[in-house]
Amino acid sequence: MMIVANPLQTEFSFLLPRGLATGTLQRAGRMRLATARDELLARKHRHVQAYPEYVMLVLLSQVIIELGTLETVSPEDLENLFTQDLAYLREFYNRVNQVGNAKLPVHCPQCSHHFETELVLAGEL
Fold it and tell me: Residue 98 pLDDT > 80, yes or no?
């Protein structure tokens, strides 16, 4: 996935590798850019106070604006994600909220060629 830095784009589409089962399999969704307020509110959430590792579920529930047919996404909904999907969403969140793309420098040990490669997330279109 390459996320092109477009200052006007604030929403990004994604496709979960496995999907969230809610009676209907929910895979396609959209995520908006996070704000400082999202980060602050996530840290104040009652579950996060008791379990700091819960912060990512709260944060994701705030920035996922669409997931299949779900009108809203709660942290409790995201508790039911497969770990592969949670890892995907965490990485996707990090990529859309950071400037630039997801290219990594690579060095070939056989021919000593230097190049860049792009990471592809499982589940991508």
Answer: yes
Longest distance between any two alpha carbons in the chain, whole Å: 54
19: left (phi over 0), alpha (psi -120 to 50) or beta: left
The total of other beta-carbon atoms located within 10 Å of residue 16's CB is: 25
Q: Which two tokens stand for residue 117?
A: 């490669």
| Residue 50 resides in a domain | yes
Question: pTM of this prediction?
Answer: 0.73
Q: What is the mean pLDDT of residues 46-65?
A: 94
Cβ-based neighbour number of residue 49 at 10 Å: 10
What is the domain extent for residue 38?
A: 11-118
Query: Residue 3 pLDDT > 90, yes or no?
Result: no
DSSP secondary structure of 2-61? -----TT--EEEEEEEEEEESSSEEEEEEEEPP-HHHHHHHHHSHHHHH-GGGHHHHHHH
In a domain, 1, yes or no: no
Question: What is the total count of domains within the chain?
Answer: 1
